[in-house]
Model the fold of this input.
Amino acid sequence: MNSSTLAFIGGGNMAGALIGGLIQAGSAASSILVIEPQAAQRESLRQRFGVRVYEGAVAELGEAEAVVWAVKPQSFAEAAVACAPHFGAALHISVMAGVRCAAIARRAGARRIVRAMPNTPALIGQGIAGLYASPQATADDRARAERLLNPTGQWLWVEQEAQLDAVTALSGSGPAYVFYLLEAMIDAGTRMGLPAESAKRLALGTFSGAAALAAQSPLSPAQLREQVTSKGGTTAAALDVLAEHGVAQTFGAALQAAANRAAELGEQLN
Ligand SMILES: NC(=O)C1=CN([C@@H]2O[C@H](COP(=O)(O)OP(=O)(O)OC[C@H]3O[C@@H](n4cnc5c(N)ncnc54)[C@H](OP(=O)(O)O)[C@@H]3O)[C@@H](O)[C@H]2O)C=CC1
Ligand SMILES: O=C(O)[C@@H]1CCC=N1
Done:
């Protein structure tokens, strides 16, 4: 990463993950500035990474060649009013769920925009993000966004902006579904008599092992599931209960609700 100035608007979880990755990848701390209203967050970012932190919009935003929008969608309008007067001709990269390029262009005066939808495993370099570039973004802009995301894990580009709502529903919110299943499996194991620590280890090992197998195997997830499922055996008994309760359909409905919410957050800002 080169050392031209990068400005983060919002210094919470996602900004912290991205900044941590950039610093580890060799970016100079002095090239990163963060606007963050919470004193505790500012202090944490300053101590962990040595970046420049400010409570509110400052003239230094004009130095930024790239701006990263990492506030909640509901905070974007107010933040844009405060910051927009200071921006130069920067590339704008947004990680905000739902907020459309059109709204970022209109409210922040941005022209070249890349939207990214990362997820929290980015905190340990094992995230996966979807990226979308506005038609005005250049090849250099895309490369810059890739350099921002690289240290946090994997990324892929989508062709249509609306597809980012599906990315948000699947992988942006996705870690929460995995944690939810983990909690349920650990609880069940504990109720069936395992020590809590053992149940946790077994559940975690099962998730990481199954994910690694699915990633490496030429077989589809459905075929891998069939390999586990002996006729008349234990897995079949469990899967019958999941089917009776329509768990696959429920998952479908849950992801659709997340995508709808992303679209709604976007519409509120148009
Ligand atoms: N968490 C996740 O898993 C993911 C989040 N995202 C997106 O990333 C964005 C940030 O999420 P996350 O990091 O979790 O949220 P956080 O709440 O941790 O961070 C946002 C920070 O921005 C601050 N803020 C509020 N208003 C302003 C302002 N006017 N100027 C500057 N900073 C401001 C907030 O302060 P205060 O608390 O006072 O409001 C808060 O500290 C969201 O848009 C979300 O959709 C994307 C992918 C995954
Ligand atoms: O829950 C949210 O709105 C954010 C976006 C994706 C993950 N967290």
